[in-house]
Predict the structure.
Amino acid sequence: MPTSTDTRSPRGSARRRAEVVLGAERLRAPATSANIARNARAERERHARWAPARDALWRALDPQMARGARVAVVGAGNADSVPLARIAARAGAVTLIDLDGQAIRAACRRQPRRRRRRIEAIQHDVTDGAADTIARAAATGELPVTVTPSPAPLPGAPYDLVIGDLLYSQLLYPALVDLNVPPDVTAEFLTRCAPTLTRATVARLNLSARDGCVVHVHDPIAWWPGHSHPVTLKLILATAARDPAAALSLAARGTGPHHSDPRPALTALSIPILVSSLWRWPFAPGVDYLACATLTGRVGGAARI
């Protein structure tokens, strides 16, 4: 007698069809599917746990955001890492841009009604499908493809301030994981393709901001049980209090998503770095990330050094 998991039974056949459909969707838009899946798995407790990281990001944003400014948050997702309420209270208009439309619309609905009216959600892939193309090539065993993401400004541009929220390391890697790409192939594609994606994304964000005023937030290194580094988060943050550049040099000694670091992209694009801020991101119990906010452009008509 067939069981519920037997593909010969009606239930088993339906499950198999669902798996086929899911597999096809993952291959059609793997980067999009991977990020949507991660947003859907976000546990409820993390919003409260990430409050210190939102506070730290707000301290970096506060001096740069004029009252009534038009602000874009790229890679907003569930907005758990973004001080959205404080941004909306200060800004005249806020646009959340993410490839997961459901997540950013839900983030809007969680805001008080008087602030919700200032927030717009735009579903958009900042790589314009380039990440999906690269991930498919990795999964099907093709050689790394030459992909040139769109140099066009973001939807709704120009903005007074653009925030790139922890999206750089998520552009390609999650898709490769979900497609079960072998580790050596993953490493090859990240090394060859991730810097191009990162540089193109950085360029789009800076092109979309008046005076190039962008805050790029990325996660250069993380610690969890069994994943240690020759430097500690405590040492890095203590160093950052007096010299952020030296702190980032310490972080570079460890293993992290260096291929998707926006700072080398800024250097390659001749975009000056004005201010850097670092803080602890309590990602999960027993898991700490280092977060870094990098300010570029001119603010209020004068560069802030």
Remarks:
- The first helix runs from residue 10 to 28.
- The radius of gyration is 20 Å.
